[in-house]
Amino acid sequence: DIQMTQSPSTLSASVGDRVTITCRASQSISIWLAWYQQKPGKAPKFLIYAASTLESGVPSRFSGSGSGTEFTLTISSLQPDDFATYYCQQYNTYSWTFGQGTKVEIK
Amino acid sequence: EVQLVESGGGLVQPGGSLRLSCAASGFTFSYSAMHWVRQVPGKGLEYVSGISSNGGSTYYAKSVEGRFTISRDNSKNTLYLQMGSLRAEDMAVYYCARARGLSGKDPFDYWGQGILVTVSS
Fold it and tell me: How many helices (DSSP H) and strands (DSSP E) are in chain B?
């Protein structure tokens, strides 16, 4: 099975900061990576697919990059609504796998 | 508007069974693969099971294979998860989710609100 590892597990940042989260796959997944945002008590929200394609309606301050085994999610200027936990997910195989999550908290 | 509404959760004893349902609306259900994902409160997301649009292919995490069965009724726009031989470690919030796209290997663009399954004596 493909393992997904996110870093850091927790990130403390201020409004306006540029924030980067890394996701590594245990083997190549090409570009078949998605990112989700989850707030406490809510379902995950779909942000990015195919490593870098923004889902409709997602603010342009979110961006994704990478291919193969290393991927990043960047928030160019952190907004109050962005404090949440972020998960990557690989969908290269018929065994979808999530990273363990990165919590973005207020510094 | 796409809506996914889970039901059927609750308290069940270890070794017991429970069937979750997910009622879908706002899209052509029979065109979409569907999935179940769970989350222990305070922990991360764990993939549970998936089913192709016509029900011909099913997928399971190793942790539930042989105990859980996914199915769908396209005439009722409903997804199911039959859970058996439940263990304490199955206690979680269960989400149903829609696959984005038609390739069969897609991310999940819409999620239900989640339903809590509690396994305890």
Answer: 0, 11
- Secondary-structure breakdown of chain A: helix, strand, coil percentages, each rounded to the nearest 5: 5, 50, 50
pLDDT of B105 over the 90 cut: no
Residue for token pair 């796409």 = B2
Which residue of B58, B100, B105 to mutate against A (max A Cβ within 10 Å)?
A: B105
Would you place residue B114 in the very low, low, confident or very high pLDDT band (cuts 50, 70, 90)? very high
C-alpha span between A79 and A95 (Å, rounded): 33
Q: Which residues of A83-101 are buried (b: 16+ CB within 10 A; e: fewer)?
A: ebbbbbbbbbeebbbbbbb
Give A-chain residues touching B104 at CB under 8 angstroms.
94
Token output for A90: 């690989």
Within 8 A of B108 by CB-CB distance, chain A residues are 34, 36, 44, 46, 89, 96
Residue A17 has pLDDT above 90, yes or no: yes
Mean pLDDT confidence for A77-103: 95
